[in-house]
Amino acid sequence: MSNLSVSLTLLSFVAVVFASVYSRYRLDVRAKLARLQGASLIARTGCGPVEYAEAGSGASLLISHGAGGGFDQGMEFGGASLALRGFYVVAMSRFGYLRTPMPSDASPSAQADAHAALLDALGIARTAILGVSAGAASAMQFAIRYPQRCTALVLLVPIAFKPPDLAPSAPQLSSLAARILLMIVGSNASYWFACRVARNLVIKLVLATRPKVVHAASKSERARVARLLDGMMPIDRRIDGITNDARISSALPRLDLKRINVPTLVISVRDDLYGTFASASYIAAEVPNARLIGYDTGGHVWVGHDNDVLAQVVRFLTP
Fold first, then answer.
1. For 234-262, what is each residue's pLDDT tens digit?
2. Residue ranges for the chain with pLDDT beneath 50
3. What is the pLDDT of residues 175-207, one digit of tens each?
4. Distance CA 189, CA 52 (A)
5. How far is CA 51 from each of CA 47, 90, 230, 274, 277, rounded to the nearest angstrom?
6. How many angstroms separate the most distant Cα atoms in the chain?
7. End-to-end CA distance of the chain
8. Dihedrals φ, ψ of 87, to 5°?
């Protein structure tokens, strides 16, 4: 066989493989978009349109999701389970995520105002609020700015201010790792491909969890991690929010945490690669009568502790 024939054969093989992979990618993106159709509502509020989903009945609980999320991540991060445990859960999409647009002011305080505006639109006078990861900033602002409307505050692996003199609980992400992370979450194609060819890297950089912790977990916990990774698609519908959260997280302000006068539960994990354990410890020490629950392992998505976390939240929020 001539060199030309070999080259043509290789090119044909590459073309077939590429076509097959691209077809699978397109099918997955369509499936993720179809999953979102009809799963949420839009509230017309004084702060603009806010996307949300609701479930359950009982005491009200508003969920402020983390980076890469939306209303769907809020439901996955315990919302659906809490709805089955006697709570009326409202999971909203923060600024720049899915169908909630990005306003000119997308600060945590402005997001807290949007939380209150959503409650107005839904006729909810008072609520507990659960802030997860990057969603903790607006949850804390809500408790500070609307004390008369906040019944309790739960912060789960909160990305928040840590005093410079407090030792970090995780090393800072290197500039190279930060660039790789931005490349991974930069488009549907890059994220989809990375999840398939460099899954451990995605778990480490995006979920801030050591891959060995996931591999050693139970089948149900590994399935939960897979749902979290899969649930970030389509990532292009979330990129504005991710970019905004990254900007906010790079310059987190010191809040007057003593102004938070509602029952507060803070939960974090020591080996969280985003270093939220140090921030959680600081928050729990500053907020009057706050309680801290810490796990030694589990990473940013508390692998191995999901059932206990849900039980702790239910116990805390139940009178």
1. 999 999 999 999 999 999 999 999 999 99
2. 6, 13
3. 999 999 999 999 999 999 999 999 999 999 999
4. 26
5. 12, 10, 20, 27, 30
6. 81
7. 79
8. -125, 145
CB neighbours of residue 5 within 10 Å:
9
Torsions phi, psi of 131, nearest 5?
-105, 120
As a whole number, the mean pLDDT across the chain is 93
| Share of the chain residues as helix, strand and coil, in percent rounded to the nearest 5 | 50, 15, 35
Length of the chain: 319
Residues 6+ apart with CB under 8 A from 135: 63, 64, 65, 66, 69, 94
Where b means 16+ CB within 10 Å and e means fewer, 188-219 reads: beebbebbeeeeebbbbbbbbbbbebbeebee
Give the pLDDT of residue 199: 96
In this prediction, residue 24 carries a pLDDT of 85
Q: Which residues lie below 8 Å from residue 46, measured CB to CB, with a gap of 6+?
A: 117, 120
Question: How do residues 206-239 score in pLDDT, each as one tens digit?
Answer: 999 999 999 999 999 999 999 999 999 999 999 9
Distance, in Å, from the CA atom of 47 to the CA atom of 50, rounded to the nearest integer, reads: 8
pLDDT at residue 13, rounded to an integer: 47
Exposed/middle/buried for residue 177 (C-beta within 10 Å: 0-12, 13-18, 19+):
middle
Q: How many CB atoms lie within 10 A of CB 32?
A: 19
| Rounded (5°) CA angle 254-256-261 | 140
Q: Is the pTM of this model over 0.85?
A: yes
Q: CA of 266: how far to CAs of 32, 155, 277, 287, 295, in Å?
A: 32, 5, 10, 10, 12
Tell which residue, 310, 312, 319, 247, has the closest CA to residue 84: 310
Helix, coil or strand: residue 133? helix
pLDDT at 4: 54
The CATH architecture to which 42-169+241-317 belongs is: 3-Layer(aba) Sandwich (3.40)
Distance CA 123, CA 43 (A): 11
